[in-house]
Q: What sequence folds into this?
């Protein structure tokens, strides 16, 4: 696991988190929450672009051609594989997973790699409001299942050899959220050190097509295919 | 009866902002939220279209009015 692998994991997860947030921009419990979902989605999609842009200066870009055809080559957590059907899933991701990514970004900003120190700092300012949003909704109470799942996947994502150990990252997350994780058990035999997750699987076909720009073709009128190029 | 956006535990907050240090804060809108944290997140998300140098929120109930429209 190189630093580039970690940055790519962060980038892929931020991209999927942004997309899943955006899917709730018209389904959240209030108009304000709709707008916050859209704004946080934009933030995280922007963060993913910055993170992808850090790969070249880091000297190693782990992205291969398989990312064009195999959704399982993306390094997102299983939590983002499918669209969320319940607001509780949104809240658990917002409070726990988004904050877990922020804890890692803080570690990068406080680290010794110049490009990460400089480019990731602004994310922390924006993430402050994601955190306030997630924590407030979390305190109002959510279902147990997404809460357990988000904690389990955050703990699995922290695993591995990093400058900060998993225990320290987990302690920072607990301190930030002012709560201990519920008892969760992970299937460490299935843990993938590159994707930083224990469950196999990948994002749904629609989302993968959207990421590759293929879904847009469905919206083109049939006549568009016959249209002659302009002189 | 006067129209109110709030219901239940929700509170209405007025949002103030300014673009430069030399101009005064002015009201840019309002948000409804059950607590201060969420109100901050909502205000930032809703009124993020400008590059404000300062933004603040105030509970509408905490504003002390000297007079209202039509009373002056």
A:
């Amino acid at each position: 696991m190189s630093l580039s692998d970690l940055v790519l994991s962060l980038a892929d997860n931020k991209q999927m988190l942004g997309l899943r947030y955006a899917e709730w921009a018209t389904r959240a419990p209030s108009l304000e929450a709709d707008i916050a979902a859209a704004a946080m989605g934009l933030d995280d999609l922007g963060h993913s672009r910055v993170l992808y842009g850090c790969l070249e200066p880091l000297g190693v870009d782990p992205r291969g051609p398989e990312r064009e055809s195999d959704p399982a080559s993306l390094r997102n957590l299983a939590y983002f594989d499918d669209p969320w059907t319940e607001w509780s899933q949104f809240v658990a991701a917002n409070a726990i997973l988004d904050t877990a990514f922020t804890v890692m970004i803080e570690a990068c900003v406080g680290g010794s790699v110049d490009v990460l120190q400089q480019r990731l700092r602004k994310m922390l300012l924006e993430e402050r409001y994601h955190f306030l949003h997630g924590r407030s909704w979390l305190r109002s109470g959510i279902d147990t299942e997404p809460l357990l799942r988000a904690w389990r996947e955050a703990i699995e994502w922290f695993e591995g050899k990093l400058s900060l150990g998993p225990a320290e990252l987990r302690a920072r997350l607990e301190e930030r959220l002012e709560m201990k994780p519920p008892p969760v058990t992970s299937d460490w035999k299935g843990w993938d050190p590159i994707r930083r997750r224990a469950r196999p699987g990948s994002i749904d076909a629609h989302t993968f097509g959207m990421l590759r720009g293929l879904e847009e073709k469905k919206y083109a009128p049939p006549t568009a295919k016959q249209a002659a190029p302009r002189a | 009866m006067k129209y109110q956006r709030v219901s239940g535990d929700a509170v209405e907050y007025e949002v103030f902002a300014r673009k430069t240090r030399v101009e005064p804060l002015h009201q840019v809108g309002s948000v409804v939220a059950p607590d201060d944290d969420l109100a901050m997140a909502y205000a930032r998300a809703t009124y993020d279209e400008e590059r404000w140098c300062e933004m603040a929120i105030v509970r509408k109930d905490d504003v002390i009015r000297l007079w209202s429209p039509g009373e002056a």
Observations:
- The two ends of chain B are 22 Å apart (CA to CA).
